[in-house]
């Protein structure tokens, strides 16, 4: 009895240790919809006997797989190729069946099997069960090995998206293009998945509608974190490589110039992913920023304390909110407690492009169209009446990059001063005489090296071509009756500038001339500083009569002659 018990225990131990395990697995490609996927497996076996006439089955999940064809089958047992083995598809069990796997009973040590068949129809993790089955259909349970394969969605080609309007937050049309790399069967679903607009889906659709090429009907679905447009291919499928289009109308552009990623996704009718691609969309034009910035003192170089406020067309993320002020002017500023939101006062931060960058606009999001008071902004006017553009742009910061939201350009221009102290004099004031002529004027505002003045003589006078020109501030030259004075040393406000021409011909008569015109410029012809346009004239003196004779025809007293 004791010997029999030991023998039975030994048999039970052999039975318990009988198994087949997976050593390696190679499946390629691992993309949904493949029609020619290669499957290659190696198994190790312990104490398994495969009976004569057995078959090897690779049974696929019914859900994602519908095995329709098989080719390129190879089977090796214990390192030897089983040349008699053939393979076929058993559609009722959804399996690839290797017949004639064992001509005689075999003690299995290892097993290699490979074949080519169609892949999974959609992405996800699927099972393939391998096992031997004897000639009566009885399954060898010791040989059962359940393998898993993870399938990803195929990548479509030719994917793009174009917005008909490139303004931040504007209502627009998105035009999508894509070409399937896997045939799209009837009843499939197209999804266009967009990121949430400023943290939620509110106002993203804006009564949007959708349309696509081929035969489809549109169903729009929104959620709090994404917007999905489903266009169902209701009556016809789409062949591989056939370009497709989809349009979405009355949808909002992104809330800043930061690029967004949109997923174009084709699914089965049961919403399983088959193929997809990702496209990026970036708009380039900030929306309108309504800015209040009105200097009250327009005098050159004057200081203005301005209460700066704005309304943004789009919301501004409080945690990363910035206002960038860009201009050619040298700006200085200060803040007072003028914020309309419960926050600390904004601060200036360093900027690498010489703009004024103000951060910390708010600790919470700033709603679109809400009035925001930035505080007092001190502006020193330009040193001339040249027009300057000041750009105000709300921005957000992410991925080490500033992205614009809304913007507004305001043109500021100082007013040129009118000179009141000026005089002209001639060394020889006699009418039509030629002599030295002097023009003097007192400037209202500073001039720097590179500034210049233009003196326009009246048309009744003539600067002789051989004349010389000298000035108290640099050098001068003339062309016709126009004299240009170049400033070679800085001239402070209130200084007098005198220019002398050696040969100027006076007016022909003693009637006062038309006015002299005097203009000073800071650096260019559009940078007028001071001017005199009226009131400065020159009246020549009469020519003296050298002799006078009276010769009557009759010298008789009281005679009329």
Question: What labels would you give this structure?
Answer:
1 helix; rod-shaped; 3% helix; six-stranded mixed beta sheet; mainly beta; disordered N terminus; eight-stranded mixed beta sheet; 561 residues
Describe this structure in words.
The chain has 561 residues and is mostly beta strands. It has an eight-stranded mixed sheet, with no helix packed on it. 3% of the residues lie in helices and 49% in strands. It starts with a helix and ends in a 29-residue tail after the last strand. The protein contains one helix and 39 strands.
Quote the average pLDDT.
Answer: 88
Structural class: mainly beta
Strand content: over 45%
Largest sheet: 8 strands, mixed
Number of strands: 39
- End-to-end Cα distance, whole Å, is 190 Å
Strand order of the largest sheet: 24-25-23-27-28-21-22-26
Basic shape: rod-shaped
Assign a percent range to the helix content.
Answer: under 10%
**What are the low-pLDDT stretches, counting only 5+ consecutive residues below 50?**
1-16
Radius of gyration: 47 Å
Q: Helical stretch count? A: 1
Outline the secondary-structure elements:
Layout: H1 2-16, E1 19-28, E2 37-50, E3 55-60, E4 70-77, E5 80-81, E6 86-90, E7 95-99, E8 106-117, E9 124-133, E10 139-151, E11 154-155, E12 157-163, E13 171-179, E14 189-195, E15 209-212, E16 216-222, E17 226-233, E18 244-252, E19 260-267, E20 273-281, E21 287-292, E22 303-312, E23 321-326, E24 347-349, E25 356-359, E26 371-380, E27 388-398, E28 401-412, E29 417-418, E30 422-426, E31 434-442, E32 452-456, E33 462-463, E34 469-471, E35 474-479, E36 482-487, E37 496-505, E38 517-521, E39 528-532
Parallel strand pairs: 11-20, 21-28, 29-39
Antiparallel strand pairs: 1-2, 2-8, 3-7, 3-9, 4-5, 4-8, 6-7, 9-10, 12-13, 13-18, 14-17, 14-19, 15-18, 16-17, 19-20, 21-22, 22-26, 23-25, 23-27, 24-25, 27-28, 30-31, 31-37, 32-36, 32-38, 33-37, 34-37, 35-36, 38-39
């Amino acid at each position: 009895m004791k010997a029999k018990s030991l023998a039975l225990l030994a048999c039970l131990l052999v039975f318990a240790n009988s198994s087949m395990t997976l050593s390696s697995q190679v499946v390629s490609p691992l993309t949904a919809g493949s029609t020619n996927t290669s499957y290659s497996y190696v198994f190790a076996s312990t104490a398994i006997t495969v009976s004569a006439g057995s078959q090897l089955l690779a049974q696929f999940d019914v859900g994602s797989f519908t095995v329709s064809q098989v080719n390129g089958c190879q089977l090796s047992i214990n390192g030897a190729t089983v040349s008699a083995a053939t393979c076929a598809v058993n559609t009722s069990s959804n399996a690839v069946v290797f017949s004639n796997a064992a001509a005689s009973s075999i003690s299995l040590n290892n097993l290699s099997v490979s074949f080519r068949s169609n892949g999974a129809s959609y992405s996800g993790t699927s099972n393939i069960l391998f096992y031997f089955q004897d000639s009566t259909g009885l399954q060898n349970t010791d040989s059962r090995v359940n393998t898993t394969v993870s399938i990803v969605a195929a990548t479509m080609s030719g994917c793009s998206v174009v917005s008909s309007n490139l303004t931040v937050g504007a209502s627009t049309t998105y035009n999508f293009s894509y070409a399937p790399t896997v045939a799209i069967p009837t009843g499939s679903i197209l999804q266009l998945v967009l990121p949430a607009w400023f943290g939620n889906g509110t106002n993203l659709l804006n009564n949007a509608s959708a349309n696509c090429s081929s035969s489809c009907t549109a169903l729009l679905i929104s959620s709090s974190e994404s917007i999905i447009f489903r266009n169902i291919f209701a009556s016809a499928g789409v062949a591989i490589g056939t370009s497709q289009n989809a349009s979405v109308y009355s949808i909002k552009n992104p809330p800043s110039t930061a690029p967004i990623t949109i997923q174009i996704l084709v699914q089965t009718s049961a919403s399983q992913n088959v193929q997809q691609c990702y496209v990026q969309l970036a708009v380039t034009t900030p929306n309108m920023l309504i800015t209040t910035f009105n200097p009250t003192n327009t005098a050159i170089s004057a200081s203005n304390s301005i209460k700066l406020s704005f309304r943004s067309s789009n919301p501004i993320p409080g945690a990363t909110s910035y206002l960038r002020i860009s201009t050619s002017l040298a700006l200085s500023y200060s803040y007072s407690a003028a914020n309309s939101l419960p926050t600390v006062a904004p601060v200036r931060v360093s900027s690498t492009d010489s703009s004024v960058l103000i951060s910390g606009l708010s600790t919470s999001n700033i709603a679109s169209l809400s009035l925001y008071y930035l505080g007092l902004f001190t502006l020193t006017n330009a040193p001339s009446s040249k027009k300057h553009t000041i750009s105000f742009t709300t921005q957000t910061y992410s991925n080490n990059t500033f992205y614009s939201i809304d913007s507004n350009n305001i043109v500021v221009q100082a007013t040129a001063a009118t000179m009141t102290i000026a005089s002209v004099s001639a060394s020889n004031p006699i009418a039509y005489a030629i002599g030295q002529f002097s023009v003097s004027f007192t400037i209202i505002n500073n001039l720097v090296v590179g500034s210049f003045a233009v003196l326009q003589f009246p048309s009744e006078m003539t600067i002789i071509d051989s004349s010389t020109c000298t000035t108290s501030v640099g050098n001068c030259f003339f062309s016709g009756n126009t004299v240009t004075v170049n400033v070679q040393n800085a001239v402070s406000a209130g200084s007098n500038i005198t220019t002398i021409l050696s040969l100027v011909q006076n007016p022909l008569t003693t009637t006062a001339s038309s006015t002299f015109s005097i203009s000073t410029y800071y650096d260019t012809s559009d940078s007028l500083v001071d001017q005199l346009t009226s009131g400065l004239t020159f009246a020549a003196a009469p020519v003296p009569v050298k002799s006078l004779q009276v010769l009557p025809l009759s010298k008789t007293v009281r005679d009329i002659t």
